[in-house]
Design brief:
199 residues, globular, 2% helix, 7-stranded antiparallel β-sheet, 2 domains, mainly beta, Jelly Rolls, 6-stranded antiparallel β-sheet, 17 strands
């Protein structure tokens, strides 16, 4: 570990899938499991950023969020076709890269085959920005978040060591990371890395 890494503060906060807060969609068409939100306790009108999962069981329009940018990924199911205003329709599946688009653009979804669960990251335009990437960890990997907020959503089983703290993550558990950490997985574990920064 470099001097820079060893002098950086380490912090690890684990969010268990069983404890995610559940709430109805803004348009009433389904249910969302809120993974994390900032500021803590913020609602749909006041958040700076929000990370959540949603089950989509029927075709239909998305909720419109003025002034919000969003990125969607498919966690479970065969996927859905999105019709986003101003764009050609796109089919999003578990194999697709995360899809970024404005949450205030009129958007409707058509399920490919049965219900899906998606990962939804939203940031308030002009306040925060975000990037989402998908990676697979096997063995040991060093991860050094660079400023802002980094969240890791696990689709498998892995261990995170950060300074004097360590935690085991199961499927759909999430960790908020500050400072360098060591990720260990005996089997290939897919994760989503979400980086959020102030504008």
């Amino acid at each position: 570990m470099s001097d820079k890494q060893s002098s950086s503060p380490c912090h690890l906060q684990v969010l268990k899938a069983s404890a995610y807060r559940r709430m109805p969609w803004k348009n009433g068409g389904g249910e969302t499991a809120e993974i994390a939100v900032f500021p803590p306790g913020a609602n749909i009108a006041t958040f700076g950023w929000r990370v959540s999962m949603a089950t989509v069981a029927t075709d239909g329009p998305f909720s419109v969020f003025p002034g919000i940018d969003r990125t969607l990924s498919i966690l479970q199911g065969d996927g859905m076709e999105l019709d986003i205003a101003g764009r050609a329709p796109v089919v999003l599946t578990q194999a697709s890269q995360p899809l970024a688009f404005p949450a205030d653009a009129a958007t409707s979804a058509r399920l490919v085959s049965g219900p899906i669960v998606d990962l939804n990251i939203m940031t308030r335009r002009g306040q925060c920005a975000h990037q989402v990437g998908r990676r697979t960890f096997e063995g040991q990997h060093h991860l050094d978040p660079e400023g802002g907020v980094t969240l890791l959503l696990s689709l498998g089983n892995l261990r995170i060591d950060a300074g004097d703290h360590a935690a085991e993550l199961g499927r759909l558990d999430c960790a908020i990371l500050e400072g360098p950490c060591l990720i260990t997985s005996d089997m290939p574990a897919q994760v989503y890395l979400i980086r959020i920064s102030a504008v």
